[in-house]
């Protein structure tokens, strides 16, 4: 059931939700959270579709906030709120409200969203594109226990990681981090099978791919070994090679779907490691609403190394290093050691692979 409301208020939207639920005989008690999606008109359809698919696992009230920027100065003074209320088959397993904000109300989106939140339920805010540099201090982000961004959607995705680390607040997360969950699980399981020490790692993937950089940061943080970042044609992450005192461990995925795990002394194994769509990523993020300490540790590790290599000064929010080499992102430099650096750098203390 779909209801269109023009020049409306939050109170009228709540009444429309109650009326729609009664009309189709659907109670609201089955919803477990409120998902707020902040996007533009161009990306609203894809984000709403992903949220609808994820609602099959996490029934929720989905509020889509679309800020309509007026071109005419006269239109900017005319505040208006239009809404589209969807309940039943049109909204997956929950409820959906599409909010289009016009004029001055664009600057007060939190006042529109607050009355529509489910009572006594967690709130998650997701920015598919154009996320703020400091999500926790954003007026909408301040309402949420969990804030989801996607650095892959930024113009300079890898460089954006430095700003994300600088503004990190417990509850922040990134879909670029979520994309590497299967890789992290597979690599940890491979190290559990043999008793060895890792001496060096190579991460291979697309250039300017934040997921590749985050995986390199995580490996360097957890293993305390040199991590070399190499580039390939993709798609996405293509391979991770770990040099150990028991022989190499290689996880290679050339086609973006099926990977091969090779461990010294064992037969090669084919493992499913497909590239997941946005609905699967959002569903994973909604499974846990507590702070992701592992993500925070990996992110801060990369920025700390960046500070060391730039004389103690990391890029401030929105700033970029003018002395960076072309096509070499800052976070790559923060965790990667090239051949020359490896020859002169002090050898790090090796941690046990079980870490």
UniProtKB/TrEMBL annotation:
Spans annotated as Disordered: 306-355
UniProt-listed InterPro entries: G6PDH_assembly_OpcA, OpcA_G6PD_C, OpcA_G6PD_N
Domain Glucose-6-phosphate dehydrogenase assembly protein OpcA N-terminal: 52-165
Domain of life where this protein originates: Bacteria
Location of the Glucose-6-phosphate dehydrogenase assembly protein OpcA C-terminal domain: 170-299
Ranges of compositional bias, category Basic and acidic residues: 306-327
Pfam families according to UniProt: OpcA_G6PD_assem (PF10128), OpcA_G6PD_C (PF20171)
Bias kind Low complexity: ranges: 335-355
Name of the protein in its database record: Glucose-6-phosphate dehydrogenase assembly protein OpcA
Species of provenance: Streptomyces variabilis
